[in-house]
Design a protein that fits this description.
There is one protein chain. The chain is mainly alpha-helical. The protein has two domains: 145 residues, no CATH class; 140 residues, no CATH class. Helices cover 77% and strands 0% of the residues. It contains eleven helices and no strands. α1 crosses α3, α1 packs antiparallel against α5 and α10 packs antiparallel against α11. The longest helix has 32 residues. The model has no long low-confidence stretch (mean pLDDT 80).
C-alpha cells in the first residue's frame, strides 16, 4: 500500500463509538441527579469522609482507557465507549463543586457549562468524522475488520452476538414486509413529538409569569428542530428507509442531548422516563440503520 504520508487514520466506527460515549455521559448525569433527588441527596461516607461520585467517574474512564489500549475487539471497544461515557458523566456532574468557592454541587449555571462542554465535544466529533474515509483509511479499516472477523466468529461472545443479530434482522425484515409497519413507525415518532410538546406546554404553564421559572428558549427550539427532523424522516420513509432512519436518529439525539437535559431541572421523573424511552429508540434506530447499511452493501 502506497504511503501517502497521512499521520492519522480514522476508525470507520469512531463516530458511532463517540456518539455512544456522549449519549451515555448525558444519560449518566440525568440518572445520577434524578436518583439523588428521589433519595433525598444522600452521601457516601462518614467520619469526615465523603466519597464523591467523581471518583467513580475517574475509575470508569480508567477502565475504558485500559480496554482501548489493550484490545482490538469491537465488542470491548464499544463497551469501553459505554463505560467511558458513564465515567465522564459521573466526573463532570460534580463540576459545580470545582468552579465555586463553596464547593456548591447545586450551582445553577453548572448545567449551562456542562451543556457547552457537550456541544463542543459534539462539534469536534463531527469535524473529525464528517468527511468520508479516504481510500487509504478504507483499506486500513477493511484490513483490520477482516483480520478480526475470524477471531470474532470463533469466540463464544461473537457467536452469541451474531446469532442474536441474525434473529433480530429476520424479525426486522418480516416487519418491513408488513404494510402497517412504516405507518406505525411514523405514528410512533409523531406521537412521541406530540407528547414532548404537551410536556413542554405543561412546564411552561407551571412556570407562570416568573421568567426564572420558564423553560429556556433553547428547549423550545430543540423541540422544533427534533419535530422538523421527524417530518423530514416521514417524508423520506417510503423512498429510502435508511435516509428516514438517519433523520429519526437526528431527532432522537437532539431530544436526548438538549431537551432531556433542560427538562430534568423542571421534572426529574418526566426527564428520566423520557430518557429511558429515547435511549431505547436510539438503540433500535442504530440497529435498523446498520441492518439497512449491510443490506445495501450486499446488494452492490
Amino acid at each position: 500500500m502506497k504511503n501517502s504520508g497521512r499521520t492519522f487514520i480514522r476508525d470507520a466506527n469512531g463516530a458511532d463509538m463517540l456518539e455512544m460515549f456522549l449519549v451515555f455521559a448525558i444519560a449518566t448525569i440525568l440518572v445520577t441527579r434524578g436518583f439523588l433527588a428521589l433519595m433525598g441527596w444522600p452521601q457516601l461516607g462518614g467520619g469526615g469522609l465523603h466519597i464523591a461520585h467523581m471518583l467513580w467517574g475517574g475509575l470508569g474512564m480508567l477502565v475504558a482507557l485500559i480496554l482501548l489500549f489493550s484490545f482490538w475487539s469491537p465488542a470491548l471497544r464499544n463497551g469501553a465507549a459505554v463505560v467511558g461515557g458513564i465515567g465522564f458523566g459521573l466526573f463532570i456532574d460534580e463540576l459545580g463543586k470545582f468552579i465555586t468557592s463553596d464547593n456548591n454541587y447545586f450551582f445553577q449555571p453548572t448545567i449551562a457549562v456542562i451543556y457547552v462542554v457537550f456541544i463542543l465535544l459534539f462539534v469536534v466529533v463531527n469535524a473529525v468524522h464528517h468527511a468520508p474515509l479516504s481510500s487509504e483509511e478504507a483499506t486500513v479499516n477493511s484490513t483490520i475488520e477482516n483480520a478480526l472477523a475470524e477471531e470474532h466468529a470463533r469466540s463464544l461472545l461473537g457467536r452469541g452476538y451474531d446469532t442474536l443479530r441474525v434473529r433480530l434482522e429476520h424479525l426486522y425484515k418480516w416487519l418491513v414486509g408488513r404494510r402497517w409497519f412504516l405507518m406505525a413507525v411514523s405514528a410512533g415518532f409523531v406521537a412521541t413529538a406530540i407528547l414532548q410538546a404537551v410536556t413542554i406546554a405543561t412546564l411552561l404553564v407551571q412556570g407562570g409569569s416568573d421568567p426564572e421559572d420558564r423553560l429556556p428558549v433553547i428547549e423550545q427550539v430543540a423541540w422544533v428542530a427534533a419535530f422538523v427532523c421527524i417530518l423530514i424522516g416521514i417524508q423520506r420513509l417510503r423512498r429510502s428507509r435508511l435516509a428516514a432512519y438517519r433523520w429519526f436518529r437526528r431527532s432522537t439525539l437532539i431530544t436526548i442531548c438538549v431537551s432531556q437535559v433542560f427538562m430534568f431541572y423542571y421534572s426529574e421523573l418526566a426527564a428520566l422516563g423520557g430518557l429511558v424511552w429515547h435511549l431505547a429508540v436510539l438503540f433500535a434506530l442504530r440497529f435498523v440503520i446498520s441492518s439497512e447499511e449491510r443490506a445495501a452493501s450486499s446488494s452492490d
